[in-house]
Amino acid sequence: MKPGWFAHPVQSGLIAGTWLLLQQSAAVPQLITAAVLGLVLPRLLHGFTGTPVPPKAWGTAVRLFFVVLRDIVVANVTVAKLVLLPWARPEPAWVPVDLDIRDPRAVTLLATIITTTPGTVSCVVDEAAHRILVHALDGSPGVDAIAADIKTRYEAPLKEIFE
User: Fold this and answer.
1) Does residue 68 belong to any structural domain of this protein?
2) Is 60 helix (H, G, I), strand (E, B) or coil?
3) Name one GO molecular function term (predicted).
4) What is the DSSP string of 14-42?
5) What is the C-alpha separation between 17 and 11, in angstroms, rounded?
6) Who contacts 149 (Cβ-Cβ below 8 Å, separation ≥6)?
7) 4 occurs within a structural domain
8) What percent of the chain has pLDDT over 90?
9) pLDDT in tens, 18-52
10) Which of 50, 53, 111, 131 is most buried by its number of CB atoms within 10 A?
């Protein structure tokens, strides 16, 4: 089934906006190019992106965005301290996080959030066992505490957004 021209309006807007930011210009030729790219690229990439499904809780999605943004800034400072301070002794740890979410987009987004936050990496997403194996640069808070933090800060809002 062929997608409509506005099948992914948010993606279209992001592509057009990104083009204008990269060009650092809002001249008429750049506006036309941005509009064409914003309309054509999502249509061409439809087979890869699938059918758009809007989030069920926009307020939660916005709050999650700011939680993740804050966590990335804080984690950057924490990782910098661990790397730069000679007396810092990080304790790397493998953290299994059992998942309550089942939506594959939510699981993918959770793994992306974990990997984007400095000091943690989603290493294995086990769909059959509904678990993500996370490597933490510093596991000194404890494996259970880290898993509980991931579930509370990221998984719970994703569950509300997608399920």
Assistant:
1) yes
2) helix
3) monoatomic cation transmembrane transporter activity
4) HHHHHHHHHHT---HHHHHHHHHHHHHHH
5) 10
6) 141
7) no
8) 61
9) 999 999 988 999 999 999 999 888 888 877 766 66
10) 111
